[in-house]
Amino acid sequence: MEHREISAPRAGKFNVHIEGDLKHKHFIILTVHDLGCNHTMWKSFLQHPSMAEINKRAAYIHVDIPGQEDNAPDLPADYNFPSMQSLGEDLVCILDQLDIKQVVGIGEGAGANIVARFAMAQPTRVLGVCLIHCTGTTAGIMEGLKDKLIGWKLEHLGMNPTAEAYLMMHRFGSFEKAKDQEELNKAINSFQQSLRKNINAQNLKRFVKSFMKRTNIAEQTGKMKCPVLLVTGALASFNHTVHTLAGFMLAKMEKNKVEIIEVEGVANVLEENPDRLAEAFLYFCQGLGVIGGVPMPRMTRANSAENPEILTRRTRSLSMEEADKPLGIYSSSPGRVGSPIKPGTSPGKGTLSTSPPS
């Protein structure tokens, strides 16, 4: 990867890692990472075989939030760590300085919140966004108390068991119920080692504090003009907030631009089921028109009798009252073509629930 430092008015500078030829690829994907991570969190996902067709056509701009790169020095004491809104708005500086007109955005957790803010602030610069475990509301009382405790411990004790446990729950949710414990344990061990060896605890505290003070973006989603793919694991810590955000988007945006998938039996879709995420993202990119003529792995049309693991489409709009409830999603379980699931319930075991873009 090519490393660049990009200046921005409030962030100061972003460390940016460019993967691929920005001038000659079909389209460009901009990534933003979660708490306790940096651009390296995307490595295994992008190397997954299901991402091969996208990698042939796309270049990547990986953004590190200030102070979150591996072995980063302490941020200056007088550095005013930017708010989530400022981080989102400052991302356009990266596009301007790299002479990029438009990107497809993808982010996880806190990074997804930042990407969403970017898409709302710069609607003409974003073709579409994939938001993994994205929160749209402010931190609740209990979340705020936990964040304050973690912030204090990171400041006074550095990386410690309590802070580590919190970040583990933030990223992996109810991991004790995961379907593939072996793969999940590998991901957890890798994350733990990165936290202990690579991530600056003082800088991470400042990122956590910014995330804790995030403002509500759910009410502002009408500003988002591009298609949105929301992704959540059924066991994710922020599963409910993802559904809540989807409800607001369906009420305030063009409904055919909002899609959601929930992957059963996992908390961290990126780590535990990358093939499903890659397939959904490939389908999403096809809907954006940046990829064409690619055979879809595993996914088929709804009238196919050959593969029961099919895609289905929402067939009705939601009222404002319904939109405030967790989104009713469609399941493609074997033997149940397009069977609707009531809001608040989960799809059948081992299924992928989604409704494709128009």
TrEMBL record:
Disordered: region residues: 304-358
Pfam families: Ndr (PF03096)
Gene3D superfamilies the UniProt entry points to: alpha/beta hydrolase
InterPro entries: AB_hydrolase_fold, NDRG
Family that this chain belongs to: Belongs to the NDRG family.
Protein name as annotated: Ndr family protein
